[in-house]
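Case study 2.
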Amino acid sequence: MPEGDNIHRHATELQSRLVGGTVSAFWARGVAYRRLVGEQVKQVEAQGKHLLIDIGPARVHVHLGMQGRLRVGPPGPLAPATGARASLAIATDGATALWWQAPKVEVLRAAFAHAHPGLASLGPDLLAPTFDPAAAVARARQRPPATPLGPLLLDQRVASGIGNVYKSEVLFLEKLDPFAPVSSVDDAGLSQLYARAQQLMKQNLGPWSRTTTRDMTRGGPAPRGEARLHVYRRAGHPCRACGTPIRVAYQGDPPRSTYWCPTCQ
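Prediction:
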């Protein structure tokens, strides 16, 4: 499922493949935007789990949700049937990018995109060079004191980019109960929680399967069969640290799965 590290990788790829190119076809939600044909792709950037693409006077906002996927291929004619079926389709003289099953695709006026309520409310991006855990802690303290740590980490208004995998993994590594209220953790503990999430996400910006059990930035593939995750999707399996069966429950609105070790956390 796409999380902040996925979206930043997408932005990096699209920045190299699309930026500077001239649009030959553009479809969003089954509608052909002929006014964007001939315009230049100016910039691609990630903001948490959101992808922003500047084309001429427009800013395209994409959120992949749980199931959305991106495919980037070589340049070539884009069949109208393909463009109409895709959530978003952008063809340029440098590449063709197709998004499928993306729940949110918006074509905004670039001059007013900063006022978009969903984007304006986002907390600091964990993968931004300027990310400061203290800023996330300050926003966390604005949430109700009884807010459980699991849903807190998924609250994109506090810090943007963390998804279900990192939520479970970082809470395990910090030995924190996902059901404990935010009021039970002091500022130093919250700061370390977000710093750890940032560290894990940075380590997974390369072309490998998401891994939290070793530092992939050191280079080289993981040994075959090596465990990639501590608790996520391991319900019923023994904890890698203590042997207690990993548990799963649902938290938040809408409910999202949380995996944890009842002994270590």
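Helices lie at 4-17, 80-85, 117-120, 133-140, 149-154, 164-173, 187-202.
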